[in-house]
Design a protein that fits this description.
Distance between the termini: 47 Å
Number of strands: 21
Radius of gyration: 24 Å
Number of helices: 15
Amino acid sequence: MTRNIQLRISLKEAEQTGILAQKIAQHLGIEVPDFDYKVLRKSIDARKPTVYFNYKLAVYVNEPVPKDNQYTFDYQDVSNAKPIHIIGFGPAGMWAALRCLELGFKPIVVERGKEVRARRRDLKAINRDHFVDPDSNYCFGEGGAGTYSDGKLYTRSLKRGDVRRVFESLVYHGATNQIVVDAHPHIGTNKLPKIVQNIRETILQYGGEVHFNTKVTDFIIHDNRLKSIVLNNSIEMDTERTILATGHSARDIFHLLNDKGILLKAKSFAMGVRVEHPQQIIDSIQYHCTGSRNNLLPAAAYSLVQQVKGRGVYSFCMCPGGFIVPAATGPGEVVVNGMSPSKRNNLYANSGIVVEINAETDLQNYEQYGVLKALQFQKDLERLAFTSGGRSQTAPGQRLTDFVEGRVSNDLNPTSYQPGLRSAPLHSLLPKLIGGRLRQGFKAYGKKMHGYYTTEANIVGVESRTSSPINIPRNEHLEHPEIKGLFPCGEGGGYAGGIVSAAMDGERCAEAAAIGL
């Protein structure tokens, strides 16, 4: 007999050994040795002073617990199969390639950056030497921006594909099965590189190809059909179906498409700053505690949103127990992002706090850039951060309270950002469209979370790569409406917002590209 039940256990109760089994026995009126169980879902409710763990459980009475995985992945030998070309090896490109293996087509992946382990040297160069390699950084290389990230797997895109399937694919390639259970799962920046490497090895094992240090520099189009792609300005590769999964920061691809007259659209997005608090402050607010949190509780997270002058001001990519990293993709710009290790045991919590930018109404001064106007606005803010930070990867920073109250910070709090911070008057440097709304948003957050608005927090600029400022259109068949054989995909096309949604879109594009091939 199998029973699905839900239990709610207080933090104090959770400290007792074997409490789940005891609660199940009480709930079902049976003896503890007579059953086994599996946790299907686990979440934390900390809205009130008493913190609770919520469990959804499957209880098996007089029968064995079934295997955890619901899916099998039937990868085929595609060594001699018809090819589907994939540009970019981030989450969208990786899962497009994996789906090709299942469908019996040969994925040929080209990636401008390096394989995952070689990327580490270039990341070290950014943090230590302030040198940014335009083709190998926190955004470009094997696994894309997702590899050296927090690895958050939470998504609202539940209607775009099978989220559980993506989770189990990650488990198949080395992730812990806990991601299937947690309400807000994440993997951790320390564990993602090995998983990404395992995905590549699966693709190669079954006959696919992955080419690193291979940059697309031109598209050859005849009669409105993509006939071939040019690699590294010298090699022309014929193609019949191409999935374009280059991510939200491949500006050269946007410019190339625009220069060739391929239909693009300006897309609304969001920009702002990173805010960094001592993790202990966020723990004390969220868990209603003083001092250190109970060791059964993870580093606390938060999610905030406030409407200010008709635009949303909201938290983005919140990283408890994490650190801020330099995410620039070229010289002359400063971009910050956040991530956490699997244990989320860093001393600081950081989050993007960003303002919605409406590409149609907010960028009147950029109309001369046409569909690239949002991209140019993004560039200008990153150059501003570079200049005000000292013309290196040192980022401009300000104490949170000084930013809101319009004061220059005489000094800054300690930070997790390795290249370092330089005090700058971000309250006057940021465009009013962003800065004014951020200041009001932070005031509102301080009322929602007592203790959040504090002199112990820094803001760090700029958080500008939340999503693509460009949309590459596609029709109901996921194909570009004017260019046959081109399938815009993932975050770069404007169709995803994170690892899971990008992976699901990659699978869908592979299925679409395979039709009739």
